[in-house]
Amino acid sequence: MSDREAQLRRSVLQHDDGVLRCAWCGTDPLYVAYHDAEWGVAVHDDALLFEMLCLEGAQAGLSWITVLRKRERYRKVLDGFDAARMARYTPARIERLMQDAGIIRNRLKLESLVSNARAYLQLGGGEGGLEALLWSFAPPQARRRPRTLGELPVSTPQSDAMSRALKKAGFRFVGTTICYAFMQAVGIVDDHQARCHRAL
Fold it and tell me: Annotated active-site positions, please?
């Protein structure tokens, strides 16, 4: 059995504190805290949904822990994910961000933050805004909790539809896999593994 196959068969992990958690979060304290307090918690605040969508796009091709470790720096250099300010970022501002080792220095990802901020502002807030759009893709019913990591999907028909809608609205770095990871993070789906303390 390959390492990848072994990883996908992993069930929940019992940590030193005796608590059972989803196997993906490992033992890194930052990851464990994120798992326990944030991942899978329903988010309905437009500004936080926008932030998480930006961060999930930054993750593309990388691990989430990489982004998580850089989240506070992102908040600082992106004006707290203030979309009105981000929408006005100039090429010179992007160039300065490209020099910042505290964030992921990928030009396409950084430029997408500006277009995503503009798309977010076009949606407007409140009813009919980002929250209404994103939550319209919530699955109609809960499914059986995954027992192993291998049972977790990387995309679903709902994430496919979300991806199409976001792209149509002008968002970038919102492919179906990114959208599904986002749905998991903000609680649109609850993928805590069976026996995880958060699933009880």
Answer: 34, 56, 64
